[in-house]
Specification:
The protein is an alpha+beta fold. The protein has 2 domains: about 100 residues, Aminopeptidase (3-Layer(aba) Sandwich); about 130 residues, 3-Layer(aba) Sandwich (Aminopeptidase). It contains 8 helices and 12 strands.
């Protein structure tokens, strides 16, 4: 076996196979960690049989082995962990192989996030006559930045990319919606929102997510989203807005035991 560094573009067929095998999608939080990872291809002779990805050298974000070589998966998984002294794994529960390999090792499992999908259920919202939801324009940026602070790193870039939306009641900004198209999953986009602190607990957060769902749907885009596992308020808001979850992101702590057999591959 040979393990060597590569780019994501060099293993596009493997990445496509991996994505096709997922039972549900993941949102931009995990995707951002994946696309900024370093990639390593696994070869048996001249044949690519799998790959894995590491974020910042110590967080494994993907591990994939082709079905024809799955009998080698456990050994190769341990080899990758030991070779790079991996500390943590980001494992979405929609990835059966990655989940199974992690469970095999009895590592400590921490719950990181919920991943949500559109339920398809219509959620009615009653907007008053002076309420407006629309894509943001440059003139909105001063009030958006004043109200939302450091919710986003670069409001200008979000505006440029077409992913920033505003929700007004008269001249008052109730909140903003955000939308980020997936770089890996065709036709999907992660949505989110921020509600003006002065207007919270009045249903505007739910209305923002419903508006974002509807905006995506009318343009042939499937909305997905996520939230931190322990943010119950966000979870309830997303569920009221018609989003549902059956997928979790696990943050698994790697602790290789000294008595484990060490697997080595040829370099």
């Amino acid at each position: 076996m040979i393990i060597k560094a590569c780019t994501m573009d060099e293993i596009k067929p493997l990445v496509a196979e991996y994505l096709q095998g997922l039972s549900s999608p993941f949102d931009s939080f995990l995707e951002d960690h994946i696309v900024t990872s370093a990639f390593y291809r696994i070869q048996d002779g001249q044949e690519d049989i799998g790959y894995y990805a590491l974020h910042n050298g110590e967080l494994m974000t993907q591990f994939y082995i082709r079905r024809s070589s799955l009998k080698k998966a456990q050994a190769l998984f341990l080899e990758a962990l030991e070779r790079h002294a991996v500390k943590n794994l980001f494992v979405p529960t929609c990835d059966e192989l990655f989940v199974s390999l992690s469970i095999d090792q009895d590592f400590k499992i921490n719950k990181q996030a919920y991943f949500f999908q559109d339920s398809g259920v219509e959620i009615p919202i009653n907007m008053e006559g002076d309420e407006v939801f629309r894509p943001a324009v440059p003139q909105d940026l001063p009030v958006v930045q004043q109200v939302c602070g450091d919710f986003l790193n670069n409001y200008d870039q979000w505006l440029h990319d077409g992913g920033l939306f505003v929700y007004y009641k008269g001249k008052n900004l109730l909140g903003i919606g955000v939308m980020e198209r997936s770089k890996l999953l065709d036709g999907l986009a992660s949505i989110g929102m921020f509600t003006n602190e002065a207007y919270r607990k009045q249903g505007y957060g739910t209305a923002l997510i419903v508006q974002m769902r509807n905006w995506c749907r009318t343009r042939g885009i499937t909305a997905i989203c996520g939230c931190w596992y322990y943010n119950e308020a966000s979870k309830r808001t997303l569920e009221r807005a018609g989003m549902v979850t059956m997928t979790r992101l696990l943050n698994i702590e790697v602790s290789l035991k000294a008595e484990n057999e060490t697997y080595r591959t040829e370099k």
